[in-house]
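Input structure tokens:
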């Protein structure tokens, strides 16, 4: 029998970022009786324009703060009498972690630890303690390491979902399970793995009611254009080169961001304390293949001839330590909690490309100035 937990004051960290903004929107609209507090430092990746449509709702509050600042987080958890946390705030881009690992350790490890400690102290001070409380940590499939490409040409996927397309492929025999041993390779995934361990340690040591989920690559509106899909859509629009790392044969497992947000809602309310759930849509793509789908879709929507922007594909030096393949087995979440992705990939990518082309002002506001400088720093002279 699943218990359905209802809480009132929910702290969502990183709510001005890509996935966080979808989670905040979902909760604010779906639960008018909850008070949603969005805590975000507004780094380069945090953008309040992502939440324009809900910013004046009576059940929504934005608080600008750094999760590493223990005293400030102590104050916020008490002031807003936080009952539940959905923790998404993080440094999230692998390429940045290769350039600057310390920032990743600071935010992802020390920030998560500060949040755990502040919340623990507040809940410890209450008569009911941990009763009805939840600390839900959002993690990634990258902590499991990399899978092998045992079938480089792809074989029919062994598992299917309602939303999967008919020609769904798998590029290897192994998948990440909740029991797969952690084996992170990049400074980003090492910092996320470390934060996951701290979350579990706070359950195992102090009995904190924690949950961890590990999700595959998300795509959809409001993603910062340093990540593959929005970067390439924007570059095609401007006729700029599309930097494909290595040979483009790395494989990622893509999930529409709103399906991740729906999974988070379900797990936050019905997930088992101390448990772990993998989230993914059995939707593996080789980078070069997904890039061709993006090019085809953008060209069609811009009225260009088919294949017009393929000339922009530019093979560049590979990412250091580039993980070959990620593939999530999400059957536990599907069978225990009844979640499944809602969209076919074809539908999701069409929706995504249309959104970026229809919201060019959003894109232009964040791709000028500082970002351009960052882009040069990351990609020039490689
Ligand atoms: P993002 O980079 O778009 O957003 C991160 C947000 O966190 C930003 O709003 C930023 O301002 C905020 N933030 C960063 N440092 C902070 C600090 N010190 N204090 C407070 N706020 C801070 O990231 P995203 O892609 O939306 O990812 C969100 C979470 O989901 C991350 O924990 C990430 O590891 C995880 N995740 C992401 C994916 C993906 O494909 N994007 C997949 C699985 C898991
Ligand atoms: O798997 C979940 C993870 O997915 C999340 O935890 C991370 O926060 C998120 O950034 C994402 O990590 P990736 O490294 O897989 O995403 P990214 O969009 O950076 O790259 C996707 C693939 O495309 C990867 O194999 C690298 C490649 N790539 C990326 C960029 C930005 C290119 O070939 N060229 C590029 O310019």
């Amino acid at each position: 029998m699943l218990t359905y937990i209802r809480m009132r004051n929910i702290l969502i960290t990183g709510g001005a970022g890509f996935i966080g903004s979808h989670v905040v929107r979902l909760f604010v609209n779906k639960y008018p009786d909850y008070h949603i507090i969005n805590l975000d430092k507004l780094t380069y990746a945090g953008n309040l324009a992502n939440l324009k449509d809900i910013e004046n709702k009576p059940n929504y509050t934005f608080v600008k703060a750094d999760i590493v600042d223990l005293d400030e987080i102590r104050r916020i958890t008490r002031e807003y009498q936080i009952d539940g946390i959905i923790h998404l705030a993080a440094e999230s881009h692998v390429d940045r972690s290769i350039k600057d690992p310390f920032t990743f350790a600071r935010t992802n490890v020390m920030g998560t630890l500060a949040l755990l400690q502040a919340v623990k102290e507040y809940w410890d001070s209450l008569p009911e303690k941990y009763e009805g409380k939840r600390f839900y940590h959002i993690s990634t499939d990258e902590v499991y390491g990399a899978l092998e490409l045992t079938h480089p040409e792809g074989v029919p996927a062994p598992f299917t979902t309602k939303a999967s397309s008919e020609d769904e492929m798998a590029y290897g025999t192994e998948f990440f399970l909740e029991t797969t041993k952690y084996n992170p390779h990049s400074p980003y995934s090492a910092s996320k793995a470390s934060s996951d361990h701290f979350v579990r340690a706070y359950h195992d040591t102090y009995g904190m009611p924690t949950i961890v989920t590990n999700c595959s690559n998300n795509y959809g509106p409001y993603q910062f254009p340093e990540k593959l899909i929005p970067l390439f859509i924007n570059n095609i629009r401007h006729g700029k080169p599309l930097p494909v790392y290595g040979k483009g044969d790395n494989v990622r497992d893509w999930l529409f961001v709103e399906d991740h947000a729906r999974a988070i809602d379900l797990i936050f309310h019905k997930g088992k304390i101390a448990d772990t759930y993998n989230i993914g849509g059995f939707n593996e793509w080789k980078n070069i293949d997904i890039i061709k789908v993006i090019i085809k879709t953008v060209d069609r929507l811009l009225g260009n001839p088919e294949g017009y922007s393929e000339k922009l594909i530019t093979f560049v030096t590979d990412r250091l330590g580039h993980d070959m393949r990620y593939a999530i087995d999400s059957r536990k979440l599907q069978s225990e909690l009844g979640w499944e992705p809602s969209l076919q990939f074809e539908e999701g990518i069409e929706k995504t490309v249309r959104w970026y082309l229809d919201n060019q002002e959003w894109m232009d506001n964040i791709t000028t100035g500082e970002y351009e400088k960052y882009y040069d720093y990351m990609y020039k002279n490689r």
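DSSP finds twelve helices and 14 strands in the chain. The radius of gyration is 20 Å.
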